[in-house]
Amino acid sequence: MKVIFLTIFPEIIEKYLTTSMMDKAVKKNLLEYDVLNIRDFSKDKHKKVDDYVYGGGDGMLFIPQVVYDAIMFSKTKLPNSKVIYMSAKGRLLTQEVIQEYIKIDEMIILCGRYEGIDERIVDNFVDDEICIGDYVLTGGELPALVFIDALIRQKGLLEEKAIMSESFFYEGGLLEYDQYTRPEEFMGLKVPEVLLSGNHKLIEEWRHFSSLKNTYEKRPDLLRKIKLSPEDVIFLSNLWKK
């Protein structure tokens, strides 16, 4: 996958992508990237990239010229790329969205700042707007890194077997089950006996209901997407009664 990041803070992107698993992804040729500073495309002698909003109001906007030139330059390097704008107005980033982008080989990721960018750029030169949650950050760099991290780890960084036991994948979309490690007892708290039994059938059954319980308690909205068995319904009913 080839990606160009457009930002006024390239050091944020570069530091993360040269660390830990992302650095491993680059070395495994799963990710090839470039980080361009939007300021380099400013025609202003002071490298200004923002201006006041028409109609009044607080904050500044990226002026269209610098963003347009940055996108067009990036297109010369990645002509088949999809332009993605990390925006609080975008569609919510979910596992389904990540699955869509696994098929995309070239991307230009635009990291907003200030109050965003001129809407003429969004309407005419952006292919998709993505939001990582219902809150507002100071810029699009962190959302861009969240997006690329989630994407690359599924695009070959981890074995499929490891991914399928994680939240949003396990048993069709449940949260992951509880997990434990040594010692068997910590501060008087013991690991569930079934996990020490060696009985794989019982362990899988325990993990299923642990996953179901976590989903019910933490993300009940996900249950609407899951096909529940009669045993699952009884289990959830008992949880509800508590």
Report what the structure shows.
Strand 5 (82-92), helix 4 and strand 6 form a beta-alpha-beta unit. This protein has helices at residues 10-17, 20-27, 64-77, 95-101, 119-125, 141-157, 160-163, 200-218, 230-241; strands at residues 2-7, 32-37, 50-52, 60-62, 82-92, 106-111, 128-131, 185-186, 189-190. The longest helix has 19 residues, at 200-218. It has two domains: 2-158, 3-Layer(aba) Sandwich (Alpha/beta knot), CATH 3.40.1280.10; 170-241, Trp Operon Repressor, Chain A (Orthogonal Bundle). Helix 1 (10-17) packs parallel to helix 6 (141-157) and helix 2 packs across helix 6 (141-157). Strands 2-1-6-5-7 form a five-stranded parallel beta sheet, sandwiched between helices. With 242 residues, it is of the alpha/beta class.
